[in-house]
Structure to design on (260 residues):
């Protein structure tokens, strides 16, 4: 008895489909603070496509191992939750194993520095549009994540109205994160975790503007560099003893850059 090519092709397709549906994605959670397996932590499988859909959930075993049966062979994201903070690792199509590194949480760390505090302005009619960007670096050793309700605080100018805000970790995408107003006027706090490595906070805001404005950044943390950026159509005048230096910006020649 001979099978027709169509029957053979159909059988092969069914076999391949069953193999794909049975693909297993295995992984390990490692505690980057202790160097030990992160036993018992929640692990979530997220299917990436039009959105981010949860496709499975489990816990790491005593050795930090976990596994998922993949219903589809597309891209996935592994999310691990350790002491209330999430950590991620991508699993592109065809990936069989991943490692996710997590870190113990401390409420306060001394090894977090502000590498840059950048304020950028441009006039738009009767409004002054501003952006404040903070670049932070967590160099704790052993590495830990800082997390508390006022994890990073800052001021905005009097009368500022926040229009957008985000947080971004190294290698990640900007995430919409709303700063929380504090009791003191014009003071805000992000409760976004400061994981080991770099974190960027960005806040966009608007101010009433009549052609001249005095702004006090009121920096709460010493920064390696404080930067002011504005178009050349606007004038910048630093306060006494500020020590600003003008820098060229080859990527934006129409922009004035002042660095302190």
């Amino acid at each position: 008895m001979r099978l027709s090519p169509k029957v053979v092709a159909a059988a092969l397709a069914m076999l391949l489909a069953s193999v794909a549906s049975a693909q297993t994605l295995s992984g390990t959670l490692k505690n980057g603070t202790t160097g030990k397996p992160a036993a018992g932590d929640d692990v979530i499988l997220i299917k990436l496509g039009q959105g981010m859909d949860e496709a499975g959930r489990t816990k790491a075993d005593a050795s930090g191992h976990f596994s998922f049966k993949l219903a589809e062979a597309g891209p996935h994201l592994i999310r691990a939750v350790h002491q209330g903070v999430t950590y991620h690792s991508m699993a592109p199509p065809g990936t069989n194993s991943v490692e996710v590194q997590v870190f113990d949480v401390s409420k306060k760390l001394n090894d977090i520095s502000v590498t840059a505090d950048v304020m950028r302005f441009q006039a738009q009619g009767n409004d002054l549009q501003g952006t404040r960007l903070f670049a932070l670096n967590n160099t704790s050793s052993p590495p830990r994540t800082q997390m508390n309700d006022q994890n990073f605080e800052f001021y905005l100018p009097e009368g500022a109205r926040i229009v957008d805000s985000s947080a971004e970790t190294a290698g990640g995408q900007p995430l919409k994160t709303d700063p929380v107003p504090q009791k003191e006027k014009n003071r805000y706090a992000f409760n976004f975790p400061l994981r080991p490595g770099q974190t960027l906070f960005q806040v966009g805001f608007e101010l009433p503007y009549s052609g001249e404005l005095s702004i006090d950044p009121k920096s709460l943390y010493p920064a390696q560099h404080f930067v002011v950026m504005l178009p050349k159509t606007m004038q910048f005048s630093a306060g006494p003893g500020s020590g600003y230096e003008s820098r060229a910006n080859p990527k934006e020649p129409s922009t004035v850059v002042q660095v302190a």
